[in-house]
């Protein structure tokens, strides 16, 4: 299934010898998608903005007209591209030096100052350990922080009326302009269910959406490698993929490859949920080599630092973890500050209790100490740290339902109300904020989730896990949840956290990650079509045109997963000639509806039809109302 | 992946030696699902009604209370079962004799008479050919037909106030009564979007729904092997799987195994779309060995009979094909009588023309002859034939959209209007009727499809192909379409025609069939939860309870695909001990939210929580409204 990319990886990779545990270019899947070119669009406000897209080149349409073959070129199709430099054969790749800086403007930012080194006590202790030398990321990383008294978050800039380079970047990225001659512009008007989608994405639209808290642009100032992206209802629905080692399985090289692999297939952000060994070192490798925002759940690492005993967690350990990760460049933090002591009794009679890892850790802490959640009591301090690095909040839903039965219950909505309070505080303090949502919810209860979240969180972007619309299909939960994800994306959710086929069962391997990401890419795209993202339908139109014209290669190349589309075709008709055949194995040549339909279009038939049509028009409008007996011609 | 079933197949199969092309028990996948028993419920009105369900036995819940293990038994869960005798180890299986007759009352039905043999000219010619002896189904098949002047369809009976044995059968089958002690009855009230779901499924509800044309019970009088099922909005959403050989691939044995395989995973009906060789003989093997309704598209075989040239089709050939298949016992026919000459000009500017095989065949015939579709002009005669055998109409949507761009266009809805006219005629003539629907439709245009269909077809059951909600994911179209299927099932569609991962690319193999059926079973179940089918949530509740209690075996056994769930778990933690572990590989033991959540429930903590809860209640209701600073306890 992965032959093409693996071959590409070998072609593109350098000759650096692999070390035992750390990643090398050989352990990565790189190289372009078939028939695809990377194109970069420069900014007009900021010349060092350089926005990547992918252009898929198509073959011409060949028609037989009066015995002569007429070739009509098909314009290339430009698509949103999350792959970063890894899918650009011309980009230099050196994992030990990190990705090139897509945000060079950070180097001389007047409101930032450069720290002499990490200020996190934990980071300094880790850096001092000789035994970790082999695991440590060897490249340079300059650590920056907001100058005292300066406001540096995208939210603060947006409110001050400033369009940052990041805002111009995402405006160009989202607008996704097709070639001037592009002929596939037809699009059904969307129905964004009460939301007014912008007709055109401009830097000013981006600024305005961020300013009103309706979009976030997660971009830590310590992540210059990032290609900025935006999460908000006015924009394309985004997909997050989770990676991370666990106590059961761990390897740094594996994690970096998972990052590259997940973004190759279309993950817009990646959450590193590692709970195993060497979390700090693994994360450094990941952030330095990631073109997408990295999210984390800092409480996981804090728990590791106190020996895995929730009761032993302290604000000081957590605080240092926030700083450690913010200095590394993590772009967003899941913070379960809504898991309040007062909400816990509401979970006792649940079918599946608390299913969020972070939520259960904090619930245990609250109960052991009979104290309010320290993330809640220290929330303003958390905000101040995050504002100094422009880390975005992903306010965690620690009490999300873990089963259909627990959906939309009192515990879930009590926490959501708290997240609403916290959103206001975070935004006041200049911190960009999105809100995490469920989980397991039947189809007819999805709307209530969106309605309540919009209301209590002031339209802050909603970021849901699925939701799974039934519990009965373990091993297929990428599908049960893609159903919920597509629908809730249409309803207004801005980012969808993927679920893999292994959810509830085990750790995903690479194939599971691919299955999960593609399932969510198609769900997000379905939501974009439904809410009416301008231009979203162009790719559907192009692939359908290719399909109807038996341009098999183009159909494969326009697919979300070109390799698998080709492999599935070749499983029945492997011969190269079959890729130009005017039928496929599904129906065979005699029964091919597409072929028959083409014959209908041949000029002579078409002329006949047009005569017929004129006759019908002249005969009056009641063509399709007459009873069966009347119209036999 | 299929070890368990393959092993089961070997265990259950008899010692009959396989012939070259015809099926034997060895070529089938049979045997029970893990921890499952087949149970049969007798009718009360009709003692020879014997309704199959599957009971999944569960292990007890083990709790440690004050240092002692307390075992609490979990009642078995009864589920709807499409597997037929193939999943019953006690059922005799002999493919050469056909399945036992689940409808013995047909043998002495007063309104039926037994024909001396087939009346179809084609059947008689085929039966006379010595060269086909090896391929021919060797068992007996008695052919019946309504006596002159007698009405025998389920619709006619229902209108006359008669509850037939088939109606009692499906009422028991749908009601799916759980054990008296069943503790998992909690269910979210559904939202059937304006439709009044029955609170309880009784034979009278079944009769009434059939009488008003809002449900069909496809059950040809020549298919006594059938276990009756019902298709209608008041009932569980059903799933159809397509099988069939094509000119590219063909084998009788393969087709029978596909039937058994598809129903094993949950197909409620199977359409035989064969277009290759020996369609007649293959179909006889299939119907004689099928416990589910078989649907066909008679125009496919008619086209084969005229050498694959659409223009050569005649009413006589088609008519004989209807009789041939009705005498074999086909339960429903797709008839593309709505593809009218007048509609064809509406398809000329489409992105993907006509993508229905049947639709394109008939369009070509209409244009070649410049005549109205002969299925339309002969519609009443078709009805008369079908009424004599109680074959149900599946009025085909030959002009369904084949791309997002073509969704909900004038051609599609013009045809739907015609199908509305035809529905009235068919029902008048006593023929049960359902309506086929698209296809490719973006999420926000699904509702219009349902609304229009309900309106113009008088609430006759709607049977859609997916729909796919985007065109961009070939190789994942079981997922793009499961999204549309789940949503449109919720909106009121009664049966969902599955799509496999190979759609648009090639012929599905067994694994594709399984992937497609399971994707659709979960979509149908999601729809059932949303529309509020009584008892639908019991299986979700049971699997969630098992998950929360780390009863891994029960979680696997309650899954739609127990084998794959187990295999995915074992991929990371294969040891048998891991199946009783209170964690899994996803988070490892320290980070297991379920484990932490259980600790929260241990009695001492629970008591603490209850004290706390009392304290909160006594302190007044404003628990979740206070600002962060105020509630630090």
UniProtKB/TrEMBL annotation, chains A, B:
Please give the InterPro entries that the UniProt record associates with this protein.
ThiC, ThiC-associated_dom, ThiC/Bza_core_dom, ThiC/BzaA/B
Q: Which residues form a coiled coil?
A: none
Report the Gene3D superfamilies cross-referenced here.
6.10.250.620, Radical SAM ThiC family, central domain
Q: Which residues form the ThiC-associated domain?
A: 32-111
Cofactor binding notes: Binds 1 [4Fe-4S] cluster per subunit. The cluster is coordinated with 3 cysteines and an exchangeable S-adenosyl-L-methionine.
- The UniProt regions of compositional bias labelled Low complexity, in chain numbering, are 1-30
Question: Does this UniProt record's set of keywords contain Iron-sulfur?
Answer: yes
Q: A Gene Ontology MF term for this entry?
A: 4 iron, 4 sulfur cluster binding
Q: Which family does it belong to?
A: Belongs to the ThiC family.
Organism of derivation: Deinococcus maricopensis (strain DSM 21211 / LMG 22137 / NRRL B-23946 / LB-34)
GO BP, sorted A to Z: thiamine biosynthetic process; thiamine diphosphate biosynthetic process
A single Gene Ontology CC annotation of this entry is: cytosol
Supply the name of the protein.
Answer: Phosphomethylpyrimidine synthase
Q: Tell me the HAMAP family matching this sequence.
A: ThiC
